[in-house]
Amino acid sequence: MSTSSWEDVAIIRLAHFSDIHVTASDCSWRLGDWLNKRMSAWINLHLLGRGKHFRHSERILIALRRELRQRNFDRLVFSGDATALGFEEEMRKATELLAVAEAPGLAVPGNHDYCTHAAMRSGHFERYFAPWQSGERIGDADYPFAQRVGNVWLVAVNSSTANRLYWDARGRVGAAQLARLEKLLAGLSPGPRILVTHYPIWLSDGGREHTFHGLRDLDDLIAVAERGGVVLWLHGHRHENYHHACSERMPFPIICAGSTTQHGRWSYNDYTINDSHLRTVQRVFVEEQGSFRDGCVFELDLPMPRQV
Ligand SMILES: [Fe+2]
Ligand SMILES: [Fe+2]
User: Which of 71, 142, 150, 295 is 20 to 30 Å from the Cα of 179, by its Cα?
Assistant: First the structure.
């Protein structure tokens, strides 16, 4: 194991947003949808009140698009849950609102985007987010893939999978993808690696996700990330914005962007990476003004990248 420094890293600007949960009124329901997880997700959305938390999504995403154009980001990072029910119509609307063809980005799917096995197999997420899915990969598998921004590698891992039971929101990376990730991380040119995934390592209080909301093979993914020189883990899935600095428990910081569109939690993160220093400005939506303002600011030191 040799060490490479941050010396050549220019200032890099990233926008990180997540869990926008776009809905659409023209979704194509099929008979089987009334019997699968989509039905329980619909009940949760329309009858149990989840939908009202996202009623301003469209307005917020129009404001976000304006922000992203104005703030000179080098790369846009989206960590999943573009949709509420994983419908193609929702995916189309989400990518139109985000204007994915206009600026360079990186996107990974969330568990809602793979709401059913049919939604996962359809490839709708990968097709509509295609402009944000380019990069270095192993063979022709969709995930993982890596994009270079300055001297930093952003590495996208798919941690989401369809589940059958309505209370099951677990994710899985899978042995095959983990093997590809190990190979990809080892083969990339020197430079810090930033992992982007939907699922978290910890909750905001440092505890683990409960059994049916977490990542089945989290420990395996952490082990591959550590061996591959990851210096930062970006994720969504949890809808509150929080972070954890490096500690004895984890050799790299972890940042959850939270939901960009959920009422009262609506924000995204504006990152400036300067050498090994990361400055984050949370940009919070202001309902009365229809625009974003600065929220909390935090700074983190990223560990020295290791080169395999
Ligand atoms: Fe979500
Ligand atoms: Fe999620």
Answer: 150
